Amino acid sequence: MRLLFVGICLLFTACLLPAQDAPRFRTDADGPNPKAAKGKPVKGKEKEAPLAWYQLVEGKFPPEGSAHAITGELIRSDHLDRRFQIRVDRDDSQERGVWDLPVDATMLPYGAIYYHGAPAALQDIPLGTHLRGLFYLKDPKDKSPLPMGPHNNRQTPDADFRRCFQLEDDFSFYARQKQSWKIESVNLATNRLTATLQQDGKPVGQPKLFDLLSSTRVLKGNGFGDLKSIEPGQNVLFNLTWATLYGPGRVQEIWIDEPSRKLATAHQLECHRNHIRQRGLPGWVQEVDDEKEIVTITFFGGVDPLLFNELTNTNPELLGWPFSKNEDNPNAPKGGIAVARESLLMYDPVNDRKGGNILDIKRIPIEPGSSGVQIRVKCGMMLEGYRPRRIVRFYPATWKVLALPREEESAGRD
Q1: Which SS3 state, helix, strand or coil, does residue 227 take?
Q2: Is residue 39 part of a domain?
Q3: d(CA 72, CA 139)
Q4: By the number of CB atoms within 10 A of the CB, which of 22, 78, 135, 234 ranks highest?
Q5: Three-state secondary structure call for residue 387
Q6: pLDDT tens-digit profile of 356-385?
Q7: What does the DSSP 8-state code read for residue 346?
Q8: Structural element, H or E, at residue 331
């Protein structure tokens, strides 16, 4: 009888676990905060205690679904420090007085950027592009004032979401969800286009009316078309500008067939691969064994997975590589580690990088912000920057390390 009672208790406890494991932070799915702007309670939620937004923990990746979605147009960009401003889209939750105000944000070290359906750097995205982002609140220890806003320093309600986890253009957003827009009608006399969002050949929502411009870029096949190339019945993707200012937005560029979209993605993917090969794979130090001089690195996500296959490539040449110990095996995979800042800028990767043989390459559980790839490196010399939670960039043995343009070196900025 006692065993039966214990079994029932254990079963009851197990039934409670899913509820206890539920997220205890606020998400976009919760809707407006009961204590919204000006203290106006949301009808039906007056007595609810509002959940707080998830606050990032140093050295840990955030849980799934914990970020806040913000959409807007890129109006300022500092690609070196991975900092930017977007003018927030208008929506029904905003009062008119806070329309069109900017969020000033910085990409997290493990923050990912996508453009034309492929990983990207901030410098790849033109000003004026409509973007969709996932953001976290600023660090509670960050006491720096918000940038001065217009109209008596008004601030958007999203102003405190200053750390960006993911940023992508409309092309990438819809391509990722396997969605496209079906052209219903085109009127070149008024430069208007009506289109309906499609998922698996079925409409999602009502048709929307977009503006065309005489400068709208039309991509067709492996080249360009013109506005006359846009026809009813086509399934297209497009990037917008001036979204929500005068309707859904103005079409900045439009891809009217699958070959043109594949070509755009393939081109951006090569831009990304070159960018990473020249600057190293970003990650953070997970663990350090000072006595054995072994550094464990977990690589960030937002990187083309095929680049991690190059970790196993070998280069027997030692010339120019920072290896000095006899136990280094010239015929084994190896690489160099360069210390980086949270912006991913390095100091002087040609001279300030040490490394050695890769002892282990393994797959670990993928978390938001993580690639799921981790390596252990035997270093010929340990640098001060090789410490847990510090940001580094890793150059596999076959990647040629060149001096970057001076503005990309962080040396002398401290």
Answers
A1: helix
A2: no
A3: 22
A4: 135
A5: coil
A6: 999 999 999 999 999 999 999 999 889 999
A7: B
A8: none
Asked if residues 143 and 87 have their Cβ atoms less than 8 Å apart, the reply is no
End-to-end CA distance of the chain: 70
- 275 and 289 share one domain: no
Instruction: For residue 237, give the amino acid letter.
Output: L
Whether residues 300 and 269 fall in one domain: no
Is 69 inside any structural domain?
yes
Distance, CA of 321 to CA of 379 (rounded, Å): 12
User: Could you tell me the two tokens for 290?
Assistant: 């000072």
CA 359 to chain centre: 30
Show the domain range for 86.
53-142+156-279
Closest CA to 344 of 172, 133, 108: 108
Identify the CATH number of the domain in which residue 402 sits: 2.40.30
Confidence of residue 15 (pLDDT cuts 50, 70, 90): very low
- Distance CA(36)–CA(92), nearest Å, equals 13
Structure tokens, 307: 């680049």
- The residue with tokens 């905060």 is 33
Query: Given the DSSP bridges, would you call strands 102-115 and 163-169 parallel, antiparallel or unpaired?
Result: parallel
> Of 279, 307, 336, which closes a domain?
279
**CB-based contact 352:401 (threshold 8 Å):** no
Whether residue 150 contacts residue 101, with contact meaning beta carbons closer than 8 Å, is answered with yes
- Band (9; pLDDT cuts 50, 70, 90): very low
User: What's the CA gap between 37 and 378, in Å, rounded?
Assistant: 54
Give the pair of three-digit tokens for residue 82.
């991975």
- Residue 113, beta-bridge partner list: 167
The predicted pLDDT at position 103 comes to 96
* Judgement on whether residues 230 and 349 belong to the same structural domain of the protein: no
- Mapped onto helix, strand or coil, the DSSP state of residue 236 is strand
- What 3-state DSSP class applies to 393? strand
**How many independent structural domains does the chain possess?**
2
Give the distance from CA 65 to its chain's centroid: 14
For residues 291 and 288, what is the distance between their CA atoms, to the nearest angstrom? 9
Is residue 366 one of the residues assigned to a domain? yes
What does R_g of the chain's alpha carbons equal in angstroms? Answer: 25
| DSSP type of residue 165 | E
What is residue 102's three-state secondary structure? strand
**Residue 306 and residue 103: Cα distance in Å, rounded?**
34
